[in-house]
Amino acid sequence: MSDKVRQQQLYQVLKQKYVGLGNEKTTKEEWLTNVNRDTYNSLQGHSASLEYITLGKRASSKRDTKVDLINKMCNDEKIRRNDGDNK
């Protein structure tokens, strides 16, 4: 029984630390939005990944690519809402 309590406490700590974990009431769309934001954040935060993306996109600079990823991260929810309205 103590293992179950310990796991629950650990889950609560992780849930407070990482908001994107969600809970049983988290919808699929919310979860996907969180995953996309986490991915964009990780890509723009790691220099090697950012350089790789910049080269792949043939962008002019890493700064431009970083700004583009940050904009995608911030505007992701607005894009999803607009797509839902058009259907």
From TrEMBL:
Q: Which InterPro entries match?
A: SF3b5/RDS3-10
How far does the signal peptide extend, from start to end residue?
Answer: none
Q: Which GO terms describe its biological process?
A: spliceosomal complex assembly
Pfam families referenced in this protein's UniProt entry, alphabetically:
SF3b10
* GO cellular component terms attached to this protein's record: precatalytic spliceosome; U2 snRNP; U2-type spliceosomal complex
PANTHER family, alphabetized: SPLICING FACTOR 3B SUBUNIT 5
The protein depicted here goes by the name: Splicing factor subunit
* Organism lineage string: Eukaryota, Fungi, Dikarya, Ascomycota, Saccharomycotina
